[in-house]
Amino acid sequence: MGKISKKQMSLSNRIFYIFNTVFWILVMLIILYPLYLVCIASVSDPDAIVRGEVIWHPVDFSLIGYKAVFKYKELWSSYVNSIFYTFTGVVISIVVTLAGAYSLSRPKFFGKAVINMFFVFTMFFGGGLIPTFLVMRDLHLYNTRWVVILMGCVSVWNLMVARTYIQNSIPDDLYEAAMLDGASHFQYFGKVVVPLSKTIIAVLAVYYGVAKWNDYFTGLVYLRDRKLYPLQTILREILATLQVDKTGDFMMSMAENSASMQEAIRIANVSKYCIIVVATGPVVLLYAFMQKYFEKGVMIGSLKG
Amino acid sequence: MSGKGKNKVRIPKKKQSLGVILRNNWQLYVLVLPAILYFIFFHYLPLYGIQIAFKDYKAVLGIQGSEWVGLKHFKAFFNAYYFRRLLTNTFLLNVYYLLWSFPVPLILAILLNQIRGERKKRFIQTSIYVPYFISTVVLAGMLYIFLSPTSGILNFARAALGLKAIDFMSNAGAFRSIYIISGIWQSAGYGTILYIATLAGIDLSLYEAAEIDGASIWQKIRYIDLPSLVPTAMMVFILDCGKMLSSDTNKALVMQTPGNIPTSDIIGVYVYNVGLGSGQFSYTAAIGLFVNIINFILIITVNKLSQKTTDVGLF
User: Fold this and answer.
1) How far apart are CA A82 and CA A77, in angstroms?
2) DSSP state of B163
3) pLDDT at B2 > cutoff 70
4) What are the backbone angles phi and psi of residue B68, rounded to the nearest 5°?
5) How many distinct structural domains can be found in chain A?
6) Less crowded by CB within 10 Å, the N or C end of chain A?
7) CB pairs below 8 Å between A and B: how many?
8) From residue A268, how far is each of A107, B118, B167, B186 by CA, in Å?
9) Which domain holds residue B13?
10) What pTM was computed for the model?
């Protein structure tokens, strides 16, 4: 298809392209501006932010917010917790999901339909928050690291996506050849399926990883000990409140490093932006590398298994 | 031809490997066992624990030992003065969200498809997915910051226009709009993926034929793009309908302030606040069960409807 020069283009098409360009500039602004604003505000002077001067670029460049955030110990210990929860959780999730998906992908697997129903049913009917909470308490998982790691460990949706992938992209001939050679399911799974599933492993890592990193609710409900809190549960206390002075420990930490309460509130105003950058930056960066797999997950999911 | 040849080879192969398959089959159960255990402990045990909705749960007596009280908690909930408010709030939040958020990815996908230049298109796609990766807490945090009556950018803009500042997050009338708009901002990009894939699958010769007939872009969208998207869109819409009462409790919870309670008090948030906050386990478990039953009925109905109209079914 050659490029159509402007002369050849009809008036209505030209109007369309003008409209479309304006439309996308607006959409890009709506999507990117809030993120941009957070970034420039994080390196601006708190007074300039409160006066409403930070709109297009940083004003009175200052790293005072980042310095305060850097000294906020609880944030960093929760950060380390989150890295641990996310890493461990994702590894366990991928192993369990892939193994289950492989079994379900085998056509001759007695009881497959029943097991399938067993999984799918949980998508439509669950115990709900309170019974789950009581069961976790009875299982002595309440206030342990395990509850954060294991909650949401297998998603039925991801299980089905992985199964569809294994069914569609690993040729059956490989299976027959391996079985003729006397391979067991363990061997075939470990030596053929896993190495050929790099794509789906990446897809699972993106979806499980983002869900785990961004989850504040599990920490809020199932943890009592603040030392075990994941990052997002701590962030909730700092970010999701109306008044700065009601954020407890966060303000305490800010106050420790400043001369007066007023100064602490001043720094807290800019620190919020810095915290958003620090908490969200890694996820967005990771996304930049994994974008291909992010799209793929939706596409494989839309195929009927 | 080649298929026939394959069949010939396969028949003896099957017989040979049957013994191997049987001997090895236990390994398939071992491989699927961890997933089964997860669902037993994290889904089926809580399902068993749902019986406390019909009991008066006492921690010392445990789930099984507590005393049966029948439908007491359900009756109390249906007769509570806030019952209608909770139900209305939950229902309206979901209906409005569905109606407003559904068309956006569709429009975005169609217009994105008309962008000329692969690099521009790629850049836009990469950008519109980014909000999906932002956590609920950070999203709510951004709302609190940007909508703040004293230092929020939106109120600075209002001041520039000579309008009075509004404390949006404490405003019951604004809660649903904020919830819906921020939800669209966060997930509309993600929603386009499926539609873009559908559009990419359209036969190019259709467009070429339309061009020869002198069709404008508007006409191509109207007569080629839209009809091709209908089946996918129908499926998405019907699936969304099945989630009518299960709005994003996590997000509403972090957006709730004393000021917006009249509209932000939805069933999920109420269950969290009263169940875990004041320890009324049995009562809130009953409310949770009520929601689950309604959602289940909705999903079954919607699935039937879907099978009838589009031949797409979940089960």
Assistant:
1) 9
2) P
3) no
4) -70, 135
5) 1
6) N
7) 270
8) 59, 43, 20, 26
9) 2-67
10) 0.89
